[in-house]
Amino acid sequence: MRELGKVFDRVADAYDAARPTYPDELFQALSEVSGVDLDGATAVDVGAGTGILTRALRARGSRVVAVDPGAEMLARLRSRAGSGGTAAVLADGNALPLAGGVADLVTYAQSWHWLDPVASIAEARRVLRPGGAIAGCWNLAHAAQAGWLAAYEERLARSCPTYWGPALEEWSVPPIAAAFEVVAERWIPWTRLVRVEDFLLDLRSHSYMAALSAGAADELVERQRAELTREFPGGVLSVPMRVYLAVGR
Ligand SMILES: C[S@@+](CC[C@H](N)C(=O)[O-])C[C@H]1O[C@@H](n2cnc3c(N)ncnc32)[C@H](O)[C@@H]1O
């Protein structure tokens, strides 16, 4: 289990409080593209974290096995209402402690890039039933759609040595599609309305922020707050977002 994966344990409260959920259209697209009816399906949600995708799958009638190596992240998932019908397993997604052929879906919601690209997909294939599907998705700020957002990302790129995002020329979505035999990809746009303070708490839940010293993180948050408040004096941001979804078998 890579230690890196545990970086989120340090920011589990901020993650749980402030990361956005996924739009309805993601689940419609997932069902349509995978051919799996979410209602009654068994899903293994790998890198489930605090359970954002897990709960959304549960709400649509899936039974979910949530797998994550982060004890703090999983504790948030377990303590949330709506986690009934969910088994939470502290484990490495590269070596799933599950029998073969048990799942209709294996999902990686903004998590696959933390795993071994080969071992993870071999494990996903092993636990899937025939006809099952593997899905990766990432909920991304669409910086090209708003000047203020591009500037915000550029400030992050300048201040965070481990930043990985749209302000970098070489940035792209994780190459999960290349790991599949059959793949369908979708881009799903949506708009996030969020208070500045919640957006800044969300910022603190990113791995590149968790890698900074406390002082450097505080200073960067202050700078971002000043810029965002100037841009949105009403205190509510309208953030252009898009979900990247890749589904394979
Ligand atoms: C960005 S969070 C995504 C959490 C959640 N799926 C969501 O949509 O918000 C990435 C998660 O991947 C987990 N992770 C890292 N390495 C992992 C591994 N080897 N196996 C399974 N999960 C891992 C981290 O602990 C973290 O909870």
Question: Could you walk me through the main structural features you see in this protein, from its secondary elements to its overall organization?
Answer:
With about 250 residues, the chain is of the alpha/beta class. It has a single domain, classed as Rossmann fold (3-Layer(aba) Sandwich), CATH 3.40.50. About 35% of the residues lie in helices and about 25% in strands. It has a seven-stranded mixed β-sheet. Helix 1 packs antiparallel against helix 7. Bound molecules: S-adenosylmethionine. S-adenosylmethionine (SAM) binds near residues 19, 69, 73, 92 and 111. S-adenosylmethionine binds next to helix 3 and strand 2.
At the fourth CATH level, what is the homologous superfamily? Vaccinia Virus protein VP39
Q: Quick one: CATH class?
A: Alpha Beta
Bound compounds, please?
S-adenosylmethionine
- Spatial strand order of the main sheet: 3-2-1-4-5-7-6
Largest sheet: 7 strands, mixed
Compute the number of strand runs: 7
Task: Encode the helix/strand succession as letters.
Answer: HHEHEHEEHEHEHHHE
Cα-to-Cα separation, first versus last residue: 25 Å
Rg result? 18 Å
Average pLDDT: 95
Sheet-strand content, in percent, reads 25-35%
Give the % helix: 25-40%
